[in-house]
Each structure stands twice: as structure tokens, then as C-alpha cells.
């Protein structure tokens, strides 16, 4: 079998049409307000605050997946990927839990 690798473009990272999360609880936009605090908007237009400051200030944070978020420069890399807030290293926040708390209280405070 002859390989066409020289003539084909690598399209492994391209999805056509692009995936567009439609569930109401999927995150559409995230912005860093300050270290430990995010502003989020969901697909249905719901908006609110995610406050991680208490979680990041805990003594046992070093033994958790959230430890890198203690670095303000790293925290600033928050992004939306497939409807969830995430950081490099497979660190993410559960968008459904975030949505439920923000709908009920306008914010999600992670202790």
C-alpha cells in the first residue's frame, strides 16, 4: 500500500464542522478577574463568578491537582475547551456543578 502522507495535510486537530457545545451548563466564555477569581458565561447566557481563593489558600493544596493554580501566572491561563474551564495539565472545573451554583447563588465558591 502506498502512503499519501506527503500529499495529505494532517487534519487531526481540525473538526468540521467545529464542535459547538449546546447544553445550557456548558461554558462559553471565561475571564480571569483576579488571581483565584473567574468570571464565566454559559451557553444559555447565565453569568457568574467562580471563587477559588479559599481552595487555593488551603494548607493541603500542595497534595491536589489544583496546586499549580496557586501560581498567578499559571492561573491566568484559564481557557474554555469543549464547554469546560481548564488549564494546562488536564486541570478543569466541573461545568455542571458550576452552573447549578451560579444559577442558584450567582457564584460558585470552592472551599
The whole-number mean of residue pLDDT values reads 88
Structural class by secondary-structure content: alpha+beta
Question: How many individual β-strands?
Answer: 7
Computed Rg:
17 Å
Whole-number count of domains: 1
Briefly note the CATH topology name. Answer: NE0471 N-terminal domain-like
Largest sheet: 4 strands, mixed
Shape: globular
SS field, number of helical segments: 3
Instruction: List the secondary-structure elements in sequence, H or E.
Output: EEEHHEEEHE
Helix content: 10-25%
Low-pLDDT runs of 5+ residues are: 1-7
Q: What is the C-level CATH assignment?
A: Alpha Beta
Strand order within the widest sheet? 1-2-3-7
CATH architecture: 2-Layer Sandwich
Query: How big a fraction of the residues is strand?
Result: 25-35%
Looking at this protein, list some descriptive labels.
single chain; about 110 residues; alpha+beta; NE0471 N-terminal domain-like; 4-stranded mixed beta sheet; 3-stranded antiparallel beta sheet; 3 helices; about 15% helix
Amino acid at each position: 500500500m502506498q502512503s499519501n502522507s506527503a500529499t495529505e495535510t494532517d487534519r487531526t486537530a481540525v473538526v468540521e464542522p467545529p464542535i459547538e457545545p449546546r447544553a445550557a451548563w456548558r461554558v462559553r466564555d471565561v475571564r480571569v478577574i483576579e488571581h483565584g477569581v473567574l468570571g464565566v458565561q454559559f451557553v444559555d447566557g447565565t453569568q457568574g463568578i467562580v471563587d477559588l481563593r479559599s481552595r487555593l489558600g488551603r494548607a493541603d493544596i500542595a497534595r491536589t491537582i489544583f496546586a499549580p493554580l496557586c501560581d498567578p501566572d499559571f492561573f491566568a491561563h484559564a481557557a474554555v475547551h469543549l464547554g469546560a474551564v481548564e488549564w494546562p495539565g488536564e486541570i478543569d472545573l466541573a461545568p455542571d456543578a458550576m452552573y447549578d451554583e451560579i444559577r442558584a447563588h450567582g457564584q460558585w465558591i470552592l472551599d
